[in-house]
Design goal:
- By secondary structure, the chain is an alpha+beta fold.
- The protein folds into two domains: 113 residues, no CATH class; 41 residues, no CATH class.
- 34% of the residues lie in helices and 18% in strands.
- It is built from five helices and eight strands, in the order βββαββααββααβ.
- Helix 2 runs antiparallel to helix 5.
Length: 164
Amino acid sequence: MVRHYHGTIEGIFWSFQESYDPSNFKPVGFIVPTPYYVYYGCNCIVNDIAEKYCINCNNNNLDDNDKEYIKDNLSFECNSIKYLFDSDDIEFINNKLFELELELGEYIINNINFEISEKEYIINDEFIDTFDKNIKKLIARYCLGKQILNAINNYNECIVICDL
């Protein structure tokens, strides 16, 4: 099964990369997100599970048949987690990227052929395939961190929603 991440940035998690990998770019003490709930019809995020209807749009997108069908369960748990990064995280992300650069070494960093487009990154798979799983995991984390940092620099924040 392929797991994606989307939001401000987009991509596919490498097979050995965890959906919680963005947590590596948050400081110690950061509470790892858990799956969240959204309302049927509008897909707004549920802030209070006791609220039966979305306070933002009052579930106006639901017709009477939908409301009858879902009755008391007007929300459902998403099979994803959401991260928010902003300018407060830049220093920490830069420090983590520097640690990864030291761990990976200059040769790997200079030969990744890493390019960031609007939302995604492009990488030279042939070069990456020559390394073992542990190095690939660090490279995948490095690429994700660079994407997050690029998005913060361009948009002042980065929202990452990760499939579980």
